[in-house]
């Protein structure tokens, strides 16, 4: 969440690093969406990346 706080919106693949498994990040994104901390959308331009950004609720939680 701190990464998204700094950059605003990022592709799903940019939210992970080499030491993190895809499944771990995917599950974290789903949980954060369920609790209303992030929003996800699919860009309408190829390669159609999944983009995530913090909601106001997520920003407030990140700043605590």
Can you describe this structure in just a few lines?
The chain is α+β, with helices and mostly antiparallel strands and 64 residues long.
Task: Explain the overall architecture.
The structure is a single chain. With 64 residues, the chain is α+β, with helices and mostly antiparallel strands. The protein has one domain: Arc Repressor Mutant, subunit A (Orthogonal Bundle). Helices cover 41% and strands 20% of the residues. It is built from three helices and three strands, in the order H-E-H-E-E-H. A three-stranded antiparallel β-sheet has the order 1-3-2. A hairpin with a 7-residue loop joins strand 2 and strand 3. The protein is globular and about 35 Å long. It starts with a helix and ends with a helix. The mean pLDDT is 88.
Draw up the topology in text.
Elements: H1 2-7, E1 9-11, H2 22-34, E2 38-42, E3 50-54, H3 56-62
Antiparallel strand pairs: 1-3, 2-3
Features:
64 residues; Arc Repressor Mutant, subunit A; three-stranded antiparallel β-sheet; 20% strand; globular
Strand portion: 15-25%
- What structural class do helix, strand and pairing data support? alpha+beta
Poorly predicted runs: none
CATH class: Mainly Alpha
**How many strands, what sense, and barrel or not for the largest sheet?**
3 strands, antiparallel
Helix content: 40-55%
**Total number of distinct structural domains:** 1
